[in-house]
Amino acid sequence: MLEGEIDTRGGGMTDGEDDRASARQARRKVPLRLVRRTLSKAWSGNIFSEAAEAAFWQTLSLPPLLLGLLGSVGFLGDWFGEAVVTEVHDQIIGFSETVFSGSVVNQIIEPTVDDILTTGKGEIVSVGFLISLWAGSSAMSSFVDAITVAHDQYGVRNEVWQRIFALLLYLASLVLLVIGLPIIAIGPNLLPEFFPSDWQPVIASWVGALYYPTVGVLLVLALATLYKVALPRKLPWHRGLPGAGLAMVIFLLSSVGLRFYISWITTTGYTYGALATPIAFLLFTFFIGLAIVAGAYFNSAIQELWPARMTRRQRRKWRRLEMVRANERLRAGEGDSASLWQRTTMPLRRQRRPDEDSQAEAGTAATSDSDQADQADHSDQADHSDQADHSDQADHGNHGEGRQRERSGEPDRSAGGRPSPQRRPPARQDRTGYSPPGGRFS
């Protein structure tokens, strides 16, 4: 003990301090493990091809969707009023100027938007919605497939049902976008008007400051919901928040990078500026897909390192399975009790030893041999008795026939039809016991 105290005072570390130091080192390594696991899973899952597939379908679905939405606004202009149509026009042009070059906006986008918003076109709405429905559902199916692959749940859901599920999910997102986009676009300007005139400047400043953070929070919540509903074996909803936050960060960084790229490429000339617009749009959709898929792999890595508890639905399912297993065990117990009753009511038999079994087998073999010998003796005796009976009967018959023939004077033909030799009378003997050769005295 004294040596331990001396070592501790001299600067040595006790076991408790060693454990705390190792725990601190382990906590420091946790973020590195998480990042390493996320990158390895994303690379093995081929994240770039999944993001490119989703970007292609997004690019194919967005233009007809926008045309269909704008065409429907032209039909509904009488309901909402000219002010709403003008506000939508200004918002679209303002957003296009932040993404595309000025020449592209003035020569292509603005005339098209003016034509669609002023007069409603049924063919544009119908064809645009059909194309966007097909391409948009394919884009949503790509996201659902990527999320299930990231969590190693691909193939759990039926392929046909997964396609139908992606279509229904896309329709639900369309409904939310149709309702939410006008509110997001027009809300900041209309919201202060619902308050008194003295409060309107304060409300307008608050709305201007909180507009983009509110939109970002809504997007994070929508992504977390997508991560939950896309999985066949669902995780708790809060488990999708880390991946949704990472996706938002990647999206913001990519948007800033694209903005610098477009601002730089447009200064080189008209030709490169015109080419930069579609390239930037393709890169924009690619980074959207990359952000969503990367968030899914991040959630999967967190789930592997720190598994989540079961949801309420999973707990209910687990209880049902436990009830089924308990019933099966009860049934098996009833069968075991019946067999136990049979075993207890049957007469007890002592188990034989191996030497006793061999002796019993030898005894059974000997008894079987003796039984066979007895049966053979009985059969031989029966055969001899039968033969003797037959021979006696034959002799009696022959003697009877011979006597009858002797009386009648007929020859005996018992042996093959030949006459039997006549018997001679026995030779007479004298009192001395001598008998002559001829059998008679002369």
UniProtKB/TrEMBL annotation:
<keyword id="KW-0812">Transmembrane</keyword>
<feature type="transmembrane region" description="Helical">
    <location>
        <begin position="210"/>
        <end position="231"/>
    </location>
</feature>
<dbReference type="InterPro" id="IPR017039">
    <property type="entry name" value="Virul_fac_BrkB"/>
</dbReference>
<feature type="transmembrane region" description="Helical">
    <location>
        <begin position="274"/>
        <end position="298"/>
    </location>
</feature>
<dbReference type="Pfam" id="PF03631">
    <property type="entry name" value="Virul_fac_BrkB"/>
</dbReference>
<keyword id="KW-0472">Membrane</keyword>
<feature type="transmembrane region" description="Helical">
    <location>
        <begin position="167"/>
        <end position="190"/>
    </location>
</feature>
<feature type="compositionally biased region" description="Basic and acidic residues">
    <location>
        <begin position="375"/>
        <end position="415"/>
    </location>
</feature>
<keyword id="KW-1003">Cell membrane</keyword>
<protein>
    <submittedName>
        <fullName>Membrane protein</fullName>
    </submittedName>
</protein>
<feature type="region of interest" description="Disordered">
    <location>
        <begin position="1"/>
        <end position="24"/>
    </location>
</feature>
<feature type="transmembrane region" description="Helical">
    <location>
        <begin position="243"/>
        <end position="262"/>
    </location>
</feature>
<keyword id="KW-1133">Transmembrane helix</keyword>
<dbReference type="GO" id="GO:0005886">
    <property type="term" value="C:plasma membrane"/>
</dbReference>
<feature type="region of interest" description="Disordered">
    <location>
        <begin position="334"/>
        <end position="442"/>
    </location>
</feature>
